[in-house]
Design a protein that fits this description.
The structure is a single chain. By secondary structure, this protein is mostly helical. Helix content is about 60%, strand content about 0%. It folds into 2 domains: about 60 residues; about 120 residues, Serine Threonine Protein Phosphatase 5, Tetratricopeptide repeat (Alpha Horseshoe). Helix 9 packs antiparallel against helix 10. The N and C termini lie far apart (about 130 Å). One of its GO terms (biological process) is chloroplast organization. GO terms for molecular function: RNA binding.
Length: about 230
């Protein structure tokens, strides 16, 4: 009987079912998103404070509504780091008209370095605000009455900006500020700066000043000593 039961159980054992997959292989197409605007990329690690964000938004609202109130009132309560961050963010967005208000507020409290002047000048030239660029260089004269530090990296950047924008008077003003600090006399002139400035002055029609600057190079000075 046990043998018969074993045979019946074997008979009732289901056959294995083989499942054939008909699913098609999935292909993945990479999707790349381009920039949404012409704004420059955010610098790595840059985080705007709530105060800076609020100031930027308030400036934009006042600008859109053509408000007669002084835009700098939105900036007066910012600490130095927030005010500087606000200015740089407006420059990054090419909001130059608003950036000039922020720069004016910064100048009223602190002494901007040449690199900051160069950043503002670059944005103004990029947006073809050339009269504002000339006024910026005029402000530079007021901030640096005794001349500018010619070993500052901002100097060569500033020179390149005004030359590329064909601002003859502004280029001459920067050179005069350099001479006022002793550049070329008590301070040795850097050959690269000499080359860029002399070529720029010559292209802008200032032949006499171009020759004067060119003679400040080390090679020409050594010839004069001989």
């Amino acid at each position: 009987m046990a043998s018969t039961l074993h045979q019946n159980l074997t008979f009732l054992k289901p056959n294995p079912i083989t499942i054939t997959s008909t699913a098609r292989p999935t292909s993945y197409v990479p999707i790349r998103c381009g920039p949404r605007s012409n704004r420059g990329p955010l610098m790595k690690g840059r985080i705007l404070s709530i105060e800076a964000i609020n100031a930027i938004q308030a400036l934009k609202r006042a600008h859109k509504s053509s408000s007669t109130s002084d835009p700098t009132t939105f900036l007066s309560r910012l600490i130095k780091s927030d005010l500087l961050a606000t200015l740089r963010e407006l420059l990054r967005q090419d909001q130059c008209a608003l950036a000039l208000h922020a720069f004016s507020a910064f100048r009223s409290e602190y002494n901007p370095d040449l690199s900051l002047y160069a950043d503002v000048a670059t944005a103004l030239a990029r947006n073809l605000m050339l009269e504002d660029l000339d006024r910026l260089i005029s402000d530079l004269e007021g901030d640096y009455v005794d001349g500018i530090q010619c070993d500052d990296k901002g100097v060569i950047k500033l020179i390149k900006v005004v030359i590329a924008a064909d601002r003859r008077e502004s280029t001459v003003r920067i050179y005069e500020l350099m001479k006022r600090s002793g550049w070329g006399s008590t301070i040795e002139a850097d050959d690269y700066v000499v080359r860029v400035l002399s070529k720029g002055l010559r292209r802008l029609g200032e032949e006499g000043l171009a020759d004067e600057v060119k003679n400040l190079s080390r090679g020409n000075l050594e010839k004069l000593r001989v």
